[in-house]
């Protein structure tokens, strides 16, 4: 006589194995994914090349002891009532949405005080409707972490101004320093299956017929009269290209969820 309990157990094991195989195949298919990060449109976004590319209101310097990205950052003294840092950008696409962000740190070395600072990230002009992100907080000797301001805006013109505005009170003393790093303005990132990305062909292309050149001339944007000419960077930097990185796989996400 056949033991039906053994057969039932074997059937369940076979069914579970089949389901696991199908699920693994589906997850593996989702693993083949990439995120394309749009190029940063800012010049010298992390102040690795000194102060060039930006305009400033008050004196400032470059720090090699504090940074959130790379090895340098912009350092601003707390002895001034406010600080404003700007950069002009051209060649934006009207109607497209752009991401803006910047890292900042408020460092207070006086053990006896707490300074209140407000940091604003804005586009075009310092109007309330143009502020994409703002942070107001108290800072003392124990608040030493980098923070990030980030937001989005929709371009209404082909040119814009990337602006940072910071005010601190009540002390306004040299034992307070504000650092900025890793600024960015770019189109939102996009993800796609890696298998859908076209593979370059090894077949040589036909030689184009001679004719008027369609290559752009000076690829660097022309200064806009909407903003002070002193804001325009004087150094030429190479154009950035999109960066691709793998998406976090579904298998890894499920594994992390299981561990948590």
Automatic annotation (TrEMBL):
Gene Ontology molecular function, alphabetical: hydrolase activity, acting on glycosyl bonds
Protein keywords: Hydrolase, Signal
Protein name, entry field: CBM-cenC domain-containing protein
Signal sequence extent: 1-29
Organism: Xylaria arbuscula
Classification via InterPro entries: CenC_carb-bd, Galactose-bd-like_sf
All copies of domain CBM-cenC, residue ranges: 40-166
Domain of life: Eukaryota
Low complexity composition-biased segments: 219-238
Polar residues: compositionally biased ranges: 191-206
Region (Disordered): 191-260
